[in-house]
Amino acid sequence: MRKTTAEKIYELGSYRVLGSATQYVADMHLYLPSAKFNNHKLFQAKQALESPAFFQVLESRHSCHKFCSEELSLNKIRSLLLCGYGLKSRHGSFTVPLAGGLDVMQLKVALRERGRWGAYDWDHVGYRLNKINRMLSDPNKLFFARSTDISLSSAAIVISANLGVLAKRYTARAYKFACIQAGHIAQNIILEATSLGLSSLVLGSLKEEEIINSFGIISEKPLYAVVIGKNLKE
Ligand SMILES: Cc1cc2nc3c(=O)[nH]c(=O)nc-3n(C[C@H](O)[C@H](O)[C@H](O)COP(=O)(O)O)c2cc1C
């Protein structure tokens, strides 16, 4: 089938075309303007907050680069997924805003179970986590996160979008819209994870073909991933 422009744009940034593109060795706070940070000013700004509880979640969130190989209950995983992407009203509204209300997003989950990695599909309308009949050898093979051992995390959630369907309405703009929606979903997941006392790391550098083959993805394109687990330091 002919590729849409949105799919062609997607491919330009893929591992197959671009390779690793950078070294990904010390993906830490290298360029942060720490000299500009003023704790007192932040304290004052926080006094004006009308909803300090929400800011507390934002403040507690940070990227985790050392997980400690704990397993998560299916209930916790389900609540992350429901907050990330779930139908929430009979009018077709989801936990994230969707361009034109089109249900084009998909979540797949690599889940640590008794030391092995299982593959799951999130049914965002029936709110079920369905096991896919395949095991994953090592989640590190799916992403670039060389400074982080993903196999020590508890779960990796891959966010994909059906660019073909989105492009029917939005033509080349579909790629941009899909990325924005993936960001909305990831943000909900990392904030829910933080409020559950879990740590997270988002990954934009994916090995798309490995992911597609590992989860048996047919029409969607993987865009973003959220790795969840317990921080070794906590
Ligand atoms: C769009 C995006 C893509 C990212 N991709 C990767 C990645 O491929 N590999 C990685 O190790 N970290 C990745 N990160 C994580 C950032 O490097 C991390 O958020 C950064 O270290 C800032 O730390 P903080 O979240 O604690 O402020 C990505 C973050 C964002 C927002």
Rg measurement, Å? 18 Å
How many domains make up the 3D coordinates? 1
Please tell me the CATH architecture by its name. 3-Layer(aba) Sandwich
- Kindly, what is the distance between the CA atoms of the first and last residues, rounded to a whole number of angstroms? 50 Å
- Summing up helix and strand content along with how strands pair, one would put the structural category as alpha+beta
Largest β sheet strand count, sense and barrel closure: 6 strands, antiparallel
Please state the average pLDDT score: 93
Strand order of the largest sheet: 3-2-1-4-6-5
* SS element count, helices: 8
Q: How do the helices and strands follow one another from N- to C-terminus?
A: HHHHHEEEEHHEHE
* Relative helix content: 25-40%
Superfamily at the CATH H level?
A: NADH Oxidase
CATH topology: NADH Oxidase
Low-confidence spans: none
Classified by CATH, the class is Alpha Beta
